[in-house]
Amino acid sequence: IGAIMPGIIDWDELWRATHAGGFHHHHGQDGQDLVSHWDSRARGFNKRVMKNTERAASQVATLGLLPHETVLDVGAGTGRLAIPMARLAKSVTALDQSIGMLQCLEENMAKEGIENIRCIHKSWEDLAEEEIEPHDVVLSSNSLGVLNLKESLAKMDSLARRAVYIFTFADRRRDDGLADFLSRGKNVRRRHSGPADYLVIYNLLADMGIYADIKILDWQSSEYYSSLDEAVADLREMYEIPAEREAELREFLSGKLTQSEKGLGMHRRHRQAMISWQKGEPVST
Ligand SMILES: C[S@@+](CC[C@H](N)C(=O)[O-])C[C@H]1O[C@@H](n2cnc3c(N)ncnc32)[C@H](O)[C@@H]1O
After folding, report:
1. What is the arithmetic mean of pLDDT over 112-135?
2. Given a cut of 50, is residue 43 above it in pLDDT?
3. Do 47 and 67 touch, CB atoms closer than 8 A?
4. Mean pLDDT score of the chain, rounded to an integer?
5. Which of 52, 98, 206, 243 has the fewest CB atoms below 10 angstroms from its CB?
6. Which pLDDT belongs to residue 185?
7. Beta strands per DSSP E along 129-159
8. In the prediction, which pLDDT does 191 show?
9. Which phi and psi angles does 269 have, rounded to 5°?
10. Rounded to an integer, what distance in angstroms lies between the CA atom of residue 117 and that of residue 80?
């Protein structure tokens, strides 16, 4: 990675400090590690995310995958992106540390008749670079559950032949009231607040001599429920909201959901950051 010039801020250390208590896209209960967290949520997660094929397709379209290319999907989950990517590329390697998520991925592959995805059950931090061959594209989508960010990014960079793409939520506090509701609960660990993840990743990359692009993607998600009970049950599972907060959650949701012909709708706005860089020789003029 060329000459490393450390700046005033140690971004790698800052990342470790802000994530010491867990990762913002999960609200695990005390003592529960990231692996068992995803193992136990795999089915519910799969059901929720695999519905939104449009968003997955638009995310995949930005990668410009070619039919001869191979993709390494770090933290592939249940294959929300791996499956549409496998339709466009030559093959996909799906790595995940959660066996529950990979089981769902394999079921999804069978259902969709996809055969060119290879699953690797491993944490990105435990994978030695020599264990895996380089891929044209290396991708991570809301899945950088790592404490050693610098090492993890360096591994992504060195295993990529054409480009690296990292997707992460840009807005820690979403403007829909749900984040506030959740943070009032005791089930959420207090964490040091630092800059949003994408800013830490971007700055650390620059210190590593990697000058990445950032693109902010703005989208709205809509979830429809047939009853308030169903919405309460779904959110309780998704955010591991304890039973004693059920009444409070019900009250919050009854003010939030809107009735339409599709059912009771929960609409949320999300801002996601896409950090990417291209490998290879500079363009000469
Ligand atoms: C929010 S899900 C995202 C899944 C998928 N990338 C997507 O966009 O739908 C996060 C996934 O990343 C996995 N993950 C998080 N940190 C990881 C790590 N260090 N190594 C391997 N997998 C990881 C989790 O097990 C989980 O399946």
Report:
1. 97
2. yes
3. no
4. 89
5. 243
6. 66
7. 135-141
8. 52
9. -100, 135
10. 12
Report which of 110, 39, 29, 22 is spatially closest to residue 77, judged by C-alpha positions. Answer: 39
Give 195 or 124, the one with higher predicted confidence: 124
Going by alpha carbons, the residue nearest to atom 13 of ligand 1 is 75
- CB-neighbour burial class of residue 30 (10 A; exposed 0-12, middle 13-18, buried 19+): exposed
Domains in the chain with CATH codes: 11-173+189-220+271-278 (3.40.50.150)
The ligand 1 site (C-beta within 6 Å) comprises 25, 34, 38, 49, 75-77, 80-81, 95-98, 101, 123-125, 141-143, 145-146
Neighbours of 192 (CB within 10 A): 10
Render the burial of 228-264: b for 16+ CB within 10 Å, e for the rest: eeebbebbbbebbbeeebeeebeebbeebbeeeeebb
Please give the distance, rounded to the nearest whole angstrom, from the Cα atom of residue 275 to the centre of ligand 1: 17
